[in-house]
Amino acid sequence: MASVFRRDRPSSSDAGWTEAEKASLFDDMLAYVASYTLEEDRVIHHVDGSWNPNWHGDLTRPFRLEGDRLVISGAPGIDPATGEEVVYRMEFTKV
Known about the structure:
Order of helices and strands: EHEEEEE
Number of domains: 1
Number of helices: 1
Low-confidence stretches: none
Mean pLDDT: 86
């Protein structure tokens, strides 16, 4: 499972979220659940469910191990706030 959130997400007010705030929060994250297989320097996520219904089937990403860190990158997408094409990168550190 992967979930990614913008670091500076706002807190709700006492009145709760407006519809616009809810939409903005949705645009500031991504999430999916999948099984995976490894092929050389690529991880292939076999997506079972996602916040984005266009993400179905297999998502292939390059990965590398750097000491105690796993780096997965190469996930192209469109930044919902700016409309610019971006490449997402996730880093995990073994503790």
